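A.,

Following up on our hallway conversation. Structure tokens first:
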């Protein structure tokens, strides 16, 4: 953390930082846990390589929704505002935010418990309900079903047309396997799925737990109007998928929590997750990855590709 940022935090927020701990995560963004006279806080500096001015405007809108759902009791960080704004901009090259630092730790599919999964489903359902209570913003409108489906076909055709001899093993087969899936999709099915504001990054890195359940949902930067069940499908893949398929007990624990608030179809949640994420992870670059989170997401989507018609 450079002196310019420290000086601005003092001037804009009245925060005197006594300790600084760099944190991992936040692709291209920088994160720190800082100790101040207000206790421990999180500082997130936004990458201007990753976000344009328009991109930061969308983040502002997403963070406004975070503040609103926090006021409805959703466990998530409180944002410290400066001049009524969640993102503090200094000149053209410094943009950051300050939030409370939430206790808890990350879990993974090997360590998460049934109690924690039931709590996670409950929080996910409550979050979707809280988002649905917010006023509709026309700026957040998502593509219609026909346009969304056309985008899936366009991605398939573009990937196929770009095949070359340097493609990594397995990549071309994974792309070609999408064709039967795409033929099975219909506008009517897409229209039947609930839409609304979703977190859109409901993955283990953004979920904090203690032994009793969820302590906080973090990183709301990507929340937007989408398919609600994408959050459900991503959570199930991240926490319940094993080498033998979905763990029935863990899946049931999550859905028990979620359906306290809203209905859900597990097969359709998994299918819409494939529709959204296949273009992210089934790429030549994605197939060159060995180990790490992105390679794990690729394997999740490959499992869905191979088991689509058995879901």
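Then the amino acids I'd put at each of the 311 positions:
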């Amino acid at each position: 953390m450079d002196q310019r940022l420290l000086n601005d935090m003092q001037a804009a927020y009245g925060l005197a930082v006594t300790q600084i701990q760099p944190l991992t995560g936040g692709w291209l963004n920088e994160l720190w846990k800082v100790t101040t006279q207000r206790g421990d806080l999180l500082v997130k500096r936004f990458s201007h390589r990753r976000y344009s001015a328009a991109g930061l405007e969308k983040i502002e809108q997403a963070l406004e929704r975070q503040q609103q759902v926090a006021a409805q009791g959703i466990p998530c960080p409180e944002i410290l505002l400066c001049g009524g704004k969640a993102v503090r901009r200094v000149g053209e090259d410094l943009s950051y935010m300050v939030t409370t630092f939430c206790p808890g730790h990350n879990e993974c599919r090997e360590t998460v418990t049934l109690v924690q999964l039931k709590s996670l489903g409950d929080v996910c359902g409550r979050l979707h309900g809280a988002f649905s209570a917010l006023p509709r913003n026309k700026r957040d409108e998502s593509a219609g079903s026909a346009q969304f489906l056309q985008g899936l076909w366009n991605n398939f055709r573009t990937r196929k047309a770009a095949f070359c001899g340097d493609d990594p093993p397995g990549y071309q087969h994974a792309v070609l396997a999408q064709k039967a899936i795409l033929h099975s999709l219909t506008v009517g099915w897409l229209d039947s799925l609930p839409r609304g504001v979703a977190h859109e990054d409901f993955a283990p890195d953004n979920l904090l737990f203690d032994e009793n359940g969820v302590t906080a949902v973090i990183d709301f930067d990507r929340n937007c109007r989408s398919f609600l069940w994408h959050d459900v499908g991503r959570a199930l893949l991240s926490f319940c998928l094993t080498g033998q398929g979905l763990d029935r007990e863990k899946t049931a624990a999550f859905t028990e929590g979620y359906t306290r608030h809203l209905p859900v179809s597990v097969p359709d949640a998994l299918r819409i997750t494939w529709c959204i994420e296949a273009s992210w992870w089934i790429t030549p670059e994605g197939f060159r990855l060995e180990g790490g989170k992105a390679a794990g997401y690729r394997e999740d989507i490959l499992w869905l590709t191979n088991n689509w018609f058995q879901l």
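The chain has a mean pLDDT of 95. Curious whether your intuition agrees with the design.

B.
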